[in-house]
Amino acid sequence: MTDPRLETLRQALPTLRLSVEPSDLEHYGRDWTRRWTPAPLAIAWPADTGEVQALLRWAHAQRVAIVPSGGRTGLSGGAVAAHGELVVSLERMSRVLGFDPVDRTLTVQPGIALQAVHDAAAAHGLHYPVDFGARGSCTIGGTIATNAGGIRVIRYGNTREWIAGLKLVTGTGALLDLNRGLVKNSSGYDLRHLAIGSEGSLGLVVEATLKLTEPPLPAQTLLLALPSFEVLMQVFAEFRARVRLQAFEFFTANGLAHVVAHGGVDPFDARHPYYVVAEYDAGDDAQQAAGLAAFEACAEAGWVLDGVIAQSQAQARQLWRLREGITEAVARYRPYKNDVSVRVGAMAAFLARAQALLGDAYPDFEVVWFGHIGDGNLHINVLQPDGSDDAGFMRQCAQVTGLLAGLLAEHGGSISAEHGIGLVKKPWLGSTRGAEEIALMRGMRAVFDPARILNPGKLFD
Ligand SMILES: Cc1cc2nc3c(=O)[nH]c(=O)nc-3n(C[C@H](O)[C@H](O)[C@H](O)COP(=O)(O)OP(=O)(O)OC[C@H]3O[C@@H](n4cnc5c(N)ncnc54)[C@H](O)[C@@H]3O)c2cc1C
d(Cα 402, Cα 252) in Å, to the nearest integer? Predict the structure, then answer.
């Protein structure tokens, strides 16, 4: 270890696992965005909360920038270390610490994968409902830091709804035990909720107590092919009025084509402009009949070009793959991602304007749309053409994002629905948050992290 700061860290914390191996710096210095060249100072893997606290005390004293690191599946560059930061990977802290059957809570360390939380909850006959495609690799700490959403928000809400307690180590190394699993706690500011979605800028999540719920009722999954966004919103309204939706996700024909090229199976003979994967409660005859009635009403109205109702779990998984496989299928094009939201009621008006704007703005680029219609959340992926110049592509996308941010502001929307601001969306935070609000956020950060060592350069910094 040549950097003298690392020698002082070794002396302060002789048991801490540290690496400056180029392969580790490369691997742990980037996230899913792959737009920045990783250049961390070193990677640290604390084994427990005590080591995280000692590490943060050292970083505070030495003024060393820290990048908290979960599964690095983030899509906004929040876990990127490109300026000599110390990456603190929580992957060694990945255990289930306890289950409380009366409170119905699961207490876990931050580095546990979302899938492992699902499995642990299921082992107790219960369910942790935050879910999305990166479940096998993303960590609970990362989902809390970004207030992750996913495919079941329409039914269960975002990560925020499911956090009963949090332990947070601040930028000075202090350990906060926030809310301690209480259902009712009317004792002043709820710092737990300030920490959720703070993207590692207020502290490191070192423990979380998660609320669990009953497993969902048996569900029916179906895939619909639709002619337009307008019809998609009508179909959504029809289904929502008749059944209890667990998910309502849309994607476009070119998104489907990318997944099919990666082994997905298109059940239809022809390609159609838009698709929806919907899932609704179908635990009894009445619920199944209601679903069928919704489907028939949409078909009779002439809205549905084609449709398939899954006849087995295996077929339902195949249909889900068509939607969930998109991010992975287009990853090789290093897409520029917009992850935007408006109120569900403003979706139709916003969509019409956004489609026109993006059609004009990107005549030469392939744009893949998908998202969570029921949450007012659209993912707009602009694929980088093979062989094109990185900087030029990014410049053009940033310019269009500026226009999109203006449109979002007009419709009262957000430039980041669920991926966080990180590095990617930082220039447009002001389109979603007022200047006074951002000033207050800065002030709060200064309280939690007076030396400004936590994820500097991200979010509003
Ligand atoms: C295929 C795919 C599908 C996805 N689908 C969705 C989706 O539907 N909905 C959705 O919301 N997201 C989705 N994502 C994005 C991503 O998975 C989420 O943002 C996830 O929450 C990131 O978790 P992570 O552990 O990988 O965090 P990282 O990428 O490692 O970090 C994300 C942010 O959290 C901070 N952080 C990480 N751990 C901690 C900690 N312990 N304490 C404090 N800060 C921390 C990091 O510094 C960074 O700012 C998807 C990503 C992929 C690749």
Answer: 24
